Amino acid sequence: MTALLDIRQLNAWYGASQALHGVTLQIEAGEVVALVGRNGSGRSTLARAIMGLVRSEGELRFAGHALGGLRTFEIARLGLGYVPEHRDVFPTLSVHENLQLGVAPRARGRIPRFAFDDAYELFPVLHERKRTRAGALSGGEQQMLTLARALLGDPDLLVIDEPGEGLASQVMGQVAQCLRVLRDRGVAMLLIEQRLVIAQDIASRVAVMGHGEIVFDGALASFAKRPDVMQEWLGVG
């Protein structure tokens, strides 16, 4: 079976500094993989490389399409969504206008799985503030908006970078519920998350990054039996 996302021997750079070293990782359709590791391990760089936002070399394919050389919007149109770490909302536009910008074109020839009603049902506060400028939202509300906008792109795979960063536990609970809905509707995810409790609740597989490499990749049950990996690469255990 061909993986939905197929990464092989991927290297990436920021200027002259190499950040990824031969990363190999596959994600199947509908699969949720938690990507964990310490800050600076290369997790966010991998997300940016997938989306064509940093210089990279190696094999990078999504749904059979080679991603090398494609621009970010072209990658998104293939069905690959991205929720960045730093909540890139359009601050002068309203919540609803931000969501409209995320609506997928119908080029893939199918009825979208997600609509505005889904976004507002998952995040009622966005419905309450749909006419509010996005720049006036709290950090948690902006995180919800970024995730809802990505959802309206009807992705087959969603790359989500630190959705829980800086969020109160109640808000994170709403975000986690959204991720479970996405998973249950068959959306594959690469979930970059520091909180192991969240990652283990959503994902079926764990990949651990260290020094720009994948140092562990296995089922959730296998990861739970590796306290050595947790201690060396995550500082827990």
Automatic annotation (TrEMBL):
Similarity section: Belongs to the ABC transporter superfamily.
One record GO biological process: L-amino acid transport
Keyword terms of this UniProt record: Amino-acid transport, ATP-binding, Cell inner membrane, Cell membrane, Membrane, Nucleotide-binding, Transport
Keyword Oxidoreductase applies: no
GO MF annotations in UniProt: ATP binding; ATP hydrolysis activity; branched-chain amino acid transmembrane transporter activity
CDD domains on file: ABC_TM1139_LivF_branched
Protein name per UniProt: ATP-binding cassette domain-containing protein
InterPro entries for this protein: AAA+_ATPase, ABC_transporter-like_ATP-bd, ABC_transporter-like_CS, BCAA_Transport_ATP-bd_LivF, P-loop_NTPase
Lineage top rank: taxon: Bacteria
Domain ABC transporter span(s) in chain numbering: 5-236
A Pfam match: ABC_tran
